[in-house]
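Running low. Any example?
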Amino acid sequence: MPRKPISPENAFLRLATLCARSEQAEGDLRKKLHDWDIAGNDSNVIIARLKQERYLDNERYARAYCRDKLRFNGWGRIKIAFMLRGKGIEQEYIDAALAEINEEQYIATLENALAAKAKTLGDKAPEQFTASLMRFASSRGFEPSIIFPAIERLTSINHED
């Protein structure tokens, strides 16, 4: 059964409601408009109106996304930046959002994730243990320059116990 077409005004109201509930990326909203069969010119007008009425702001979205993915998902800068680029967010907004990360909180997030992962590794050889932690932290998007010192701190604490 074919869907009932959505008028441009109704599409705007739906997207405005969505944006009022949570930050949204422009690329995600454009995809919704495309899925609703809203023509290119109409979708451009809707997006421009959302921006004008401050429902949509890619810079604000990048900051919120960065904050949430670090806090709730334990992601590093590399993964956050990669995912934001995939959503079509401008590089300047990505850089600004990443610059707002508190370095102490960032390292603490990594160290907590490594400590939790270390508990699941059991009695592996030191090289395997370190390699497993390195792969884990890299998959989370943390930079090697902070992974190595964090692993060293963790292993030195474990050796003292």
Summary: The chain has a mean pLDDT of 94. DSSP finds nine helices and no strands in the chain. Residues 103-160 form one domain. The CA atoms of residues 29 and 35 lie 10 Å apart.
